[in-house]
Every structure is written in C-alpha cells, then in structure tokens.
Amino acid sequence: MAAGPAPPPGSPRAQMPHLRKMERVVVSMQDPDQGVKMRSQRLLVTVIPHAVTGSDVVQWLAQKFCVSEEEALHLGAVLVQHGYIYPLRDPRSLMLRPDETPYRFQVRLGGAAIYLAKKNIRKRGTLVDYEKDCYDRLHKKINHVWDLVLMQAREQLRAAKQRRKGDRLVIECQEQTYWLVNRPPPGAPSVLEQGPGRGSCAASRVLMTKSADFYKREIEYCRRALGRTRVKSSVCLEAYLSFCSQHRPHDPLVSGCLPSNPWISDNDTYWVMNAPTVAAPTKLRVERWGFSFRELLEDPVGRAHFTDFLGKEFSGENLSFWEACEELRYGAQAQVPTLVEAVYEQFLAPGAARWVNIDSRTMEQTLEGLRQPHRYVLDDAQLHIYMLMKKDSYPRFLKSDTYKGLLAEAGIPLETKRRVFPFMWRPRHSSPSPALLPTPVELTAACGPGGGDGVA
Amino acid sequence: MATEGLHENETLASLKSEAESLKGKLEEERAKLRDVELHQVAERVEALGQFVMKTRRTLKGHGNKVLCMDWCKDKRRIVSSSQDGKVIVWDSFTTNKEHAVTMPCTWVMACAYAPSGCAIACGGLDNKCSVYPLTFDKNENMAAKKKSVAMHTNYLSACSFTNSDMQILTASGDGTCALWDVESGQLLQSFHGHGADVLCLDLAPSETGNTFVSGGCDKKAMVWDMRSGQCVQAFETHESDINSVRYYPSGDAFASGSDDATCRLYDLRADREVAIYSKESIIFGASSVDFSLSGRLLFAGYNDYTINVWDVLKGSRVSILFGHENRVSTLRVSPDGTAFCSGSWDHTLRVWA
C-alpha cells in the first residue's frame, strides 16, 4: 500500500482531475453518432454485442485528438489500464492491441465487496491470501451493510446461472478488469497508486477557514501589487523573441554543438574544450560574454580576462569588492561578523588599501548599517558598484583590444565525423569527481592580499 | 457577548469584500497593459525543425520509484533519490554509480547537488533536509558525516542550494519555504503565504540574486524576496496542484507544471500568465518542467509516462517522447544544455539528447 497518510475517502483531494477527464473521453467514445463504431464481436462460438475493436479505438483517438497512431495507442492503453475499457479476450493482461481484439466499455465501477463475496460463495471460502485480506478488511469497514452485500452477491449469482453464456462471459471480464485495476496482485504496479497524501497538513486546515488575518494579508498584498509598475505585454514578449534568437546558436538541443554532443557521440571532447578554466575558449563562448554582464561574470575565463582589464584601468578593487560581498551573502552564518569586518578594513574604511568609490549617501547608510552587521548589510553598496561596472567598465571591455583579440583568436571546433561502424565499442572516458579534487581556488578569495589586481 | 460576535462577523465580511474588490482592481490593472498575445508575436519566428531526441543513457540501480534528481555543475554527474530511501550519485556519462546512501526514511522526494560538487542534500517523509559530504575514502561511511540542516513540520518536497554550499532553500508540505545556514542548521528566513503544501521551488537567475518562486497545492505560484521573507508576486491561474516551477533562462519569466495537465508561462514584468501549453489529448498532470538553454523549448514530464516537448514561443507541442514505463516524476536539463534527464516511478532515470 502507498506510504504516507492516505487522503480521507471522498475528500476533494481524492478526485484527481485526470480521472474526470478520462471519464469524459470514454463517454464521448460511446456516443451513438460520433463515438467508436460498435459491433457484435464473435468470440470463439459466442457473440458479444456492443463491442469495439482495438484498432477502431486507436483510429478514433488519433482522429479525435489529431495525434499520431503511436500517441493514440498510448492514450488508449492508459484508458484500458484504468479499467474504463476492458478486453474480452485474455482479460488477465490490461493491454490495448491495435487489431481485431474485442473490447467493451466499463459500465459500472465499484462493488469490490460484491465481487469478493460472490467469489467466496462460489469457491466456498477458498480465496487467495491477498484477496482474503481485502475481504476481511472490507468486512470490517462496511460491517453494517455486510448483509446487504451478501444478499446482492447471492442474487447476482442466481441471476448469472440463468443468463446467457455471452452475458456471463462479459460480466466475468468486466469484473476481472475491475479487480486488476483496483486490487492488483502484490508486486504488480497499480495505476491508482498515489504519492504521499497532500493537503493533510495543518496549514491547509487552518487556512481553509478564511480568517481575518488571511484577508488582511491578501489586502496588504494587493495594495503593494497595485503600487508596482508593470510593463506592456508587447515589450515583455518581444524580449523572449530576442533572448531566444540570441541564444539559439548556443542551445545544443536546438542547434547542436561542435565537435559533437557527448551524449550522442560518446565523445567528451566538447566538455574538454569547454572546461571551466581553459586557455583557449571557443568562439561561441567568447561571444556569450557580450550578451550581458552577468554572462561575463559567470564564466571563470571571462571573469579572469575582465579582472585583468580592470587592473589595467586601475579599478580592480571594484570587482574584488563585489566578490567579497557575494562571499558574505552566501557564506556561513558564523562567518558574517568576520567577513564584514574584513570587507570594511579593505574596501570601506577611510584610507583603506583598496578603497571603493561609492556615492556619499550609500556610504553613509552602509557605515551606519555596519554597526549591526548581517549578511545583507552591504547589499546597497554592492549594487552600486555592480551597476558602475555594468554601465561603465563592461561596455569599455567589450570595445577593448583585449576582447576583440580574444574574439578573433577564438576557434570554431570541427565537427567530429560520425563513426562509420557504429558497432565499434568506444570506451566512455570517466572524469574525476569534483569531490575528489582539492578545494577549488575560489574566485571570491578577494580578501587575500593583492587578489585579482593583475599587478605583478 | 452576542453583539461582539456579530461585530466580528461584519468585520470579516467587510474584509472579504475589500480583498475581493482590490483583487478585481489588480486584474484590471494587469489587463490594461495586455496589448498582444505571445503566439501573435511569435508568428514571425521561424518554426523549429523535426525533432529527434532519444534515450542516450538509462540508469538502472534504484530498487523503487525515482522521485527526484539534480545535476552536478560538472555537467555529467547526477544525484537521484527514491521511495525506498536510497540516494545515489552517478556519473551518468559512464552510468557508473559513485556513491550510495540509504536514508532512514522512505519517500525521499527532494535531492540537490551542491555547487562545489562536494556534497548532496536530500529529504522527504522525515520532514528534514540533510547534507551529506561526498567522500571517496573507502573507510568512511557517508552516513557518518551527515548533517541535519532543515526541520519542517511536514514532508520535505523540494530543496536547493543557493550560490554556495553553505545555504539551502527548502519547500515543505507544512505550507512554508525556508532558508537555512548549513553549518549551524540555523533558520535564516521563513516564507509564509501558501494556503497548502508547497511542492516545488526554483531560484531566480538574476544579477542581484534575491528572489525565488514556489508552487503549491493551493494552485498558487508565489515569488519571494529572500531577504525580507515577503511575497512580491503571486499568480493563481492553474486549476490544480502546481508540481513544478522553473525560471526562464533570462529570469524574466517562469514556467509551471500542474495536475490540471497544463504547463503555463508567467511573465514577471507584465505580472500575468502569458501562455498555456496544453492539448486535449494530454489528460494527466505534468510533474516536472525545465527549459532548454535558450528558453525556446520546454520539456515536461507527465504522469501518463510521457515527456512532451513544447515550443515556448509558438505554444505548440513539438514532440512526444515515449520510453518510461511509469510516471515521470522529475526532469532537469543539464547545466550546459546538452541533454536532459528524467526520473520515473519505473525505477530508472533516462538521459535524452
């Protein structure tokens, strides 16, 4: 049985939306005019009315939803697995065969108790172990109506003896399917299995009763939201178009990658050529540094070149300061006071060795905040320096000889020819786990002496 | 006494109507700037070619349903967790298992790889998030160095490291998200506002790195300010639980996958839903979504065992991938976008390219 608390029976959580949707599909499949063609199917010597063939089901689904036959077959198989359609031949396996195999639509769902009771009566108490468990549990659960269940079971058995062979066969298949779907044998997967129960937490129960607090929070949120500026849809949507087209050549799943996609060719050269720190970055990689300041900083090679460039312009302290602030923001809680102190000494104190040029108002506010250091205390100063680099140093870097040179030097890898003999086994190179390597030299080690200035 | 009760009821009713009218105004404001739809703008975009994606690796080794997976920054290693408590680290390129640890609980619904590649985090029905340093020392038992970081009052549904190994963001069935200091286990910030279980979260790829989005059983997707703990934006258009949220690579939007069988795109600057990815033939819930590197493709894993590939701009379904033999429970694109990995209740993980 599924682990975790099960949803209470009949609760809204138990009504999964996909079941309702499947029911709707099955109902439209049975429409006399638009539905699947019903006919009488011959099963050995018996004739079963109102049956459909597997291939008709697949065709109907493919047409109705404008999908391929493969997809229609998959969808049909799902309907069979959930018991909405049941096979008249070989009811032990709930599969949809796209051929003349006959199927019928499940008319009623429910009555596990009745089914078991009938089996119990027929076989005179020789239910299989797991069936017996279910029987006992059901008995306990619906004890008060058990007499009714037994009565119905006896009535159905009596009626069954009088029914025609065809009807008996149909009912048997129906019930066998129901049993397979709702109580699969141990070890077999169940389509009805759900993950751990959701919505059972206290939060949902408490907030279901919409209290005054709940509405007050909503009102506050709405007021804030109304005050926010929004951007016109056309502007926002155009931004996607330009982002997608700019990044398209860099998207391996859309445009492929050179020399080859390692997963497809089993050759990891692409990764070797694009390693985090590499002497000769590829052309695509160098191009990306020009997309945005963030892309430049996120690439260790790009950042290193930018650091050198800043050094030449004697503004290396800006990047170092920014890196130190990042270290503070994402560092361990216990380190916060030490890091704040170190940053102050190095970058903000009057006469500091690597004093950063922030506007007086931000500086004042920052120094004020330093009295009670916390991890976000340098945010304003950090943002100021970031914007300075982004608006000033970064554009100059892109126009610089350094960058232009890198772009010109950078190469485009040649495509690896596909292997001529695909059955030749090519060993897949393993790579050392990052966990094995010594602690990587952090680029944020700005608090060290002379970090990243490019000064010899 | 009787008059006091009456007074309370009136206040509640007036609060409710005030909230409702403000919500209406908000909708009006949003609608004013709605001058064009995405599929209209996308008409002049070139259509994508034929898509052939196949399973390139199958990772077998879990003895039970795979519930979650995450990529390492080295672009080839992954960590995966399953219903029976097993957490495995693989080099998925060679398909070798490198580490395995058994959690003391079942249904490990969340796992994450640390940015350094030296640790993993995981949790589930134990209501906690634990961090395991990865060690290759044969004498050391991985479970010995385990650090218990987060403590919730209900199951852990998602976890993610921030920019470093030292902070973890968690989402829980107790309706909250929380930010933790790994070393001390201290709660740095908590995020309240969801009306039911929170099922997923994703950190924003922004320059200033301050926000994240979460989705829950209350059908809401909420964007949070990590510093203040406040909800800055909320979207409520799905018709059922939101199982997965993922930012568009520019950080200006995010996609969601829900039990209502649709995926949706929400723009943060326009402050509204801008696209719905759905098809009549798709009946089962989407359990996990992720974008390709350029944001042009959206991969979504569904509870009917399939993976659908959507053209984000045009809104059409580009491809359907068969292969898994049970629900697809988790899906992530690799850090360099060369492949994506899917995990399933059929006990396997597949890498597709």
Please describe the structure with a list of short key phrases separated by commas or semicolons.
heterodimer; A: 456 residues; mainly alpha; Methyltransferase, Methionine Synthase (B12-binding Domains), Chain A, domain 1; Regulator of G-protein Signalling 4, domain 2; disordered C terminus; B: 353 residues; mainly beta; four-stranded antiparallel β-sheet; 10% helix; disordered N terminus; G-protein gamma-subunit binding (chain B); WD repeat (chain B)
Describe, in plain words, how this protein is organized in 3D.
Chain A: Residues 292-407 form the RGS domain. Chain A: It holds the Pfam family DEP. Chain A: This is RGS11 isoform 5. The complex is a heterodimer of chains A (456) and B (353). Chain A is mainly alpha-helical and 456 residues long. Helices cover 53% and strands 4% of the residues of chain A. Among the domains of chain A are: 18-106, Winged helix-like DNA-binding domain superfamily/Winged helix DNA-binding domain (Arc Repressor Mutant, subunit A, Orthogonal Bundle); 109-190, Methyltransferase, Methionine Synthase (B12-binding Domains), Chain A, domain 1 (Orthogonal Bundle), CATH 1.10.1240; 275-409, Regulator of G-protein Signalling 4, domain 2, CATH 1.10.167.10. Chain A has 21 helices and four strands. Chain A has a four-stranded antiparallel beta sheet. The relative contact order of chain A is 0.07. The model of chain A is unreliable at 1-14, 202-208 and 440-456 (pLDDT under 50). By secondary structure, chain B is mostly beta strands. Chain B has one domain (52-352). Helices cover 10% and strands 45% of the residues of chain B. Chain B is built from two helices and 28 strands. Chain B has helices at 2-32, 38-41, and strands at 55-60, 66-71, 77-82, 86-91, 96-102, 110-113, 119-123, 128-133, 147-151, 156-161, 167-172, 176-181, 187-192, 198-203, 211-216, 221-225, 231-235, 242-247, 253-258, 263-267, 272-277, 286-291, 297-302, 307-311, 317-321, 328-333, 340-344, 348-352. In chain B, the strands form seven sheets. Chain B has a four-stranded antiparallel beta sheet, with no helix packed on it. In chain B, strands 2-3-4-5 form a four-stranded antiparallel beta sheet, with no helix packed on it. In chain B, a hairpin with a 7-residue loop joins strand 14 and strand 15 (211-216). In chain B, 59% of the residues are buried.
